[in-house]
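Before relying on records like the one below, remember that each one covers exactly one chain. Contacts with other chains, cofactors or solvent are not represented anywhere in the record.
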Amino acid sequence: DALRRQVDDWLDRGIATTWCNGFSAPQDGFPRYCGTTGMNSLAKDLARGLDCRTEQLVFTCRRTENGWDVVIDDGVVIETDALVLTCPVPQSWSLLVQAELDIPEQLFRRHYHRTIGLLAVLDAPSAVPEPGGVQFDPADADEPFGFIGDNAAKGISDVPAVTFHATQPWSGEHWDDDVDALRALLLERARPWIGAAGVVEAQVKKWRVAGPVMPWPEACWVDDEHRVVLAGDLCAGPKVEGAYNSGLAAAEAVTGFAT
């Protein structure tokens, strides 16, 4: 219900739009949404009024008598009352390791799926059928791709461009391949969806922690004593709705710290 209210607000203000009502034929009737200028338009809207610093790398987080010091890689220290970490838990744990918190081992040792992505910019429209998206089982070892999205059909690209997400088994098998060889192999597998168009540019992306193998059953993990919250798509389900609900739970936890 919370995400539904948020999506309705985004739709009303033109920040999100309905892409389609299913990728199969006939469509299944469930709407698929997207940001009108890409998914980061949603994050930018949520960040309005906040002091967001997106080009700084956190080196470590240190406990202090009154809260935390967040140490940036250039040596700058930011003093905070509390911490909310929403990056993948192995990364959060590495930032907190010096703080010696009692984080459950079952949490920070959670396994994640790996996903290899390909973005292909084309010189003509792709062969991806309407409505511009094709979805397969991401765990299917017999398929190279779990999802294919035509960004022009989706309405977020002015030029023909297609995003391919390899399946989990395929990504695991080819994770250590040479990047150039991997690009060539992905383009070969993608040819049925590229069609007669020429490839102007092709970028390979690797997500080592693309999604949890087994989600954490709670919406977030909270250390009240030290005012720390771990949240994100590991919690409450590995999709946008789970991440959103986890974020709300984290906000409620921080409010509890304040009182």
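The chain is about 30% helix and 30% strand.
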